[in-house]
Each structure stands twice: as C-alpha cells, then as structure tokens.
Protein: Glyoxal oxidase N-terminus-domain-containing protein
Organism: Roridomyces roridus
Amino acid sequence: MRSSKLFTLLPFVHLAIAQNTWTFVPQGNSGIVPLELITLSPTLALMYDRPYANPLKLPNGESAWAGLWHFNNNSATPLDTITNTFCAGGAFISNGTLVAVGGQALDNIAGGGMAEDGRMGIRLFGPCTSADGSGPGCTVFEDPETLHLVVTRWYPTGLRIPDGSLMIIGGSDILTTFNALNISQNNYEFFPPRAGEEGTVRPSKFLNDTLPANLFPRSMVLPSGHVLMISNNQSVIYDIETNTELQRLPELPNGVRIGVPFDGFAQLLPLSGPDYEPTVLVCGGSNKPDTITLAEMSVNDSATTQCSRITVKTSAHEFHVAVP
Ligand SMILES: *[C@@H]1O[C@H](CO)[C@@H](O)[C@H](O)[C@H]1NC(C)=O
Ligand SMILES: *[C@@H]1O[C@H](CO)[C@@H](O)[C@H](O)[C@H]1NC(C)=O
Ligand SMILES: *[C@@H]1O[C@H](CO)[C@@H](O)[C@H](O)[C@H]1NC(C)=O
Ligand SMILES: *[C@@H]1O[C@H](CO)[C@@H](O)[C@H](O)[C@H]1NC(C)=O
Ligand SMILES: *[C@@H]1O[C@H](CO)[C@@H](O)[C@H](O)[C@H]1NC(C)=O
Ligand SMILES: *[C@@H]1O[C@H](CO)[C@@H](O)[C@H](O)[C@H]1NC(C)=O
C-alpha cells in the first residue's frame, strides 16, 4: 500500500555486534588536525586543517595547514598551501584531481595569520600516482590571482556531476552558525566553468527557501543525471542541463532538519537491478525549529535518532516518489 507520507521511519534495527568492538590505537601524529580528510590511495590520505601554529612544519620552518598521511609508516608530510582551507568543500573530478573549494577568510587565531583569504579558493591536488606522495601531481596547486571561485563561499558543498566537473553549491559569505539572506550564497557555480557561464553563478530558489539552515547542503547525483539536494527539511531534484528545479520532494518528517547547524547526513544507497531506483537514507540531524536562536541551543540538546528514506522513481518522464 502506498502512503501519502513519503518519508517513512525505519524500524530500529538491533545488530548482533556483541563480540565486535572498536578500540582506538594511537599511531603517530598528524601534526595538523585533519578536519578535511580523504583517502587517495592504499598508501596516502590528504588532510586539510585551519591555519594554526601547527607542529607539522614546512621545509622553511613555517607551520603547515595541509599534509599527506602515510599509511605505510603512520606519519605526515606537509603540503604547501596558500589560502585558508578551513570550512572548505570539494570532491574528486573525473580526471582524478581533488578540487577543494571555498574556505575561511583571514584568520589570526593561534598563529594562523599566514594564510590568505580562502573563501574563493580553488585548490587542485593530483592525481598523485606515486606510493610515497612525491613527484608530479603530489603538491597542491593554487593561484588565487587567476584561479578562483566567482563568489566567496564558506561551507559550500562540492559534488562531481555526470560531465566530470564539480558543481559547487551554496555557502555563506562569512563564518556563521545560521546562514542569513544578506550573507548566503544562494547560488551554484561549476569548476571548470560551463561554456558561456564563465564568471557567473546560477541563482538557487531552493537554497533561498531553505534559509537559515542551508549550509553544506547534502547532495548527490541520481542515475538520471539529476542532482538531489537536501537542505534544512526540504529536498529538490535539480536538472543541471536545463537549470530547473524538476521537483520538490516531501519535507523530512517529524520536524527533522539536516544541514548545518543541525548536521545529520544523507546517503544514496547502493543501486541494484533491474531498475536501479535510487533510495536515499537520511539519518540524524535535529528536530529543533530553525527559528531557534544560538542562545537557546545547548550541548545537552539531543540529536534525533530518526532515519528516513525516500525512493525516487524516474520512469515515464515524470518522477514518482514512493515508499518502497
Ligand atoms: C583536471 O581538470 C582540471 C579542470 O579542467 C584542470 O585544472 C587540471 O589541470 C586537470 N588535471 C590534470 C592532471 O590534467
Ligand atoms: C614515511 O613514508 C614516507 C613515504 O615513503 C616518507 O616520505 C617519510 O619520510 C616516512 N616518514 C618516516 C617518519 O619514516
Ligand atoms: C545581516 O543582517 C543582520 C540582521 O538581520 C545584521 O545583524 C548583520 O550585520 C548583517 N550582516 C551583514 C554582513 O551585512
Ligand atoms: C529569498 O527569500 C526572501 C525571504 O527570505 C524573499 O524576500 C526573496 O524574494 C527570495 N528571493 C528569491 C529569488 O526567491
Ligand atoms: C519545515 O520547516 C518549515 C520552516 O522552515 C516549517 O514551516 C515546516 O513546518 C517544516 N515541515 C515539517 C514537516 O516539519
Ligand atoms: C548540561 O548538562 C550538565 C549535566 O546535567 C550540566 O552540568 C550542564 O550545566 C549542562 N550544560 C548546559 C549548557 O546546559
């Protein structure tokens, strides 16, 4: 039976994990805080931090705020960067280059004054094909004068799209807890820029409508090639080629919101044949109203335990959204 309530609660699942427990084993010191961390290969991970007086030093003796982690010997080597990577977004594009975008403005905390404004930053890394992280492609390429975003973005999402490029979604002009109309980048841009769109952004009604909790919108590409974005308690299916919102999906149930500052996550589940219908799982976040003030928020407020999922059907030239 189909329900009109299209996001459903999943029953609690009790997993038989009694024998398997995780333990933390300290192994080496990264020398920076790997706020943004991504595995590059069996031997390497890349780490971006906020510029501080970090123990990880560049050859010139200055503190690094980026580095490579070596899984072979649990140690870090520094990477030279120009702009402030704190609060950046990004993803791999199809030629194997990791593209980090946006970040934080000038930062003078704790010895971090050495980084340039990162909010329009574009940082290219790789492909780094050597096991030890040396050689071509294994350094961060930045040229802030000539290679930068169209607008400033703090907390943007980066999403690889079907043509192999990066879609850059939203963000704020400045560090903030809640976004606001006068600082929100309610728009998208692409790297590399799409033909005819160099130096421009695409306004987004969806991001405007999901203020003030529209930072780091959870985003994924569907098998149709369209982009599903979830922000605050709303979701949209966006067609990149025609620059149109095809459909708003139902709101997340029970007042739950994801996205900064409510956090939570959304994940496209593995696709299976014969229909490869995409199902998206949305877990965590908060059921606080988005009108709550910072003063009313407490570390003691629980996050939600809710998981919901939605299956997006893409047949017959229209979308049918249903509970499986
Ligand atoms: C990958 O593509 C980007 C965007 O076009 C480009 O800037 C970069 O140089 C490319 N990297 C390689 C290794 O070709
Ligand atoms: C760890 O391995 C990397 C890559 O081979 C090397 O550059 C680095 O010097 C090693 N570090 C230590 C502490 O042995
Ligand atoms: C944005 O508007 C708020 C009031 O709604 C104000 O407090 C704040 O200073 C403004 N920020 C900027 C950057 O103009
Ligand atoms: C964005 O939202 C504000 C209200 O928060 C509204 O006044 C404005 O018209 C909206 N802009 C667009 C382009 O939808
Ligand atoms: C979604 O959030 C809006 C305010 O941002 C609120 O008016 C609406 O009731 C919420 N929807 C649900 C299902 O909680
Ligand atoms: C959170 O709860 C603890 C334990 O009850 C209490 O000591 C603390 O003051 C609370 N913190 C806030 C910010 O409410």
Notes: Residues 70, 72-73, 75, 77, 132-133 surround 2-acetamido-2-deoxy-beta-D-glucopyranose (ligand 2) (CB under 6 Å). The first strand starts at residue 8 and ends at 9.
